[in-house]
Amino acid sequence: MKVQSLYFIAPRQVTVLEEPLPPLLPDQLLIQTLLSAISPGTELLVFRGEFPRNVPVDETIDALAGEFSYPLKYGYSTVGRVSAAGAAADPAWLGRTVFAFQPHASHFAAAPADLIPVPQDLPVEEAVFLPNMETAVNFLMDGAPLIGEQVAVLGQGIVGLLTTALLVEFPLASLVTLDRWPLRRQASLSSGASASLDPGSPGAIVQARAALGGSHPEAGADLVYELSGSPTALDLALELAGFDSRIVIGSWYGDKRASIDLGGRFHRSRIRLVSSQVSSLAPAHGGRWDKPRRLQVAWEMLRKIKPSRFITHRFPVGQAGEAYRLLDEDPAEAIQVVFTY
Questions:
Q1: Helix, strand, or coil here: 339?
Q2: Percent over 90 (pLDDT), the chain
């Protein structure tokens, strides 16, 4: 059997190769991919060559073993159907729809332990958002929004939009989002944000602080999420943050660097910077939470939020180069891009 596999081969160069599928091991299952989603933040860093060298891709996922270097098979959001089972595998898996943290490919073999059954009531186009929804759930766990708080979210790409959609479920005083692109700001407002502003427009900071409300001299956001992918946005996060507030940094910047102004309000305002990453659970939650529990919450939130409405483009995997060029060169036109097989 021939498999179509997507490779990142150099900065801004991808190719889809036909490769033979290795023989199925006795305990493995063969999955035919139905849909896979591009994670535009992380995958654009890989596409542009902006990843740090000699860093493990993901030490928690076997399918993503190895280090960031070209050529690289990458991607971690795949939904498919089990089409064959090894001699020692349970045949009850046959025909099941499953999710896997797998690079973009038309077929792949996996052990049952590496597959997550998709709930029968959940369409494929909702299930493919599982990793980003789990990330958004983790952001809320780490940020711990409280009733009546004023919250700002910087960046309304897909992870930012999912985070916004979850925050809308809280009884907040205000929820202000910022993004450069009108399409994303409109999606943010449709999701329930109080206001969505262009951070590059004149007076954006004044407008954002006004939308956040508060009459205290140190008024500002109680909680800020930096999800834009740009380290320069940390200065904006600091400007929006109020006294004793917290800034949750969910972006992965790769090898990008920026000068950050920590000499102004940062110390006197007792602002806390919180790193959030979905590969692990915060130690504060470790006594009661584990990854399966968090994953179950993510499934429930997919049912509630129905993020398939954020899919703007569908490309056959053979047109992967066109998909990445769209996200790289014309981000104003796209939110979520998926590959079909």
A1: strand
A2: 77
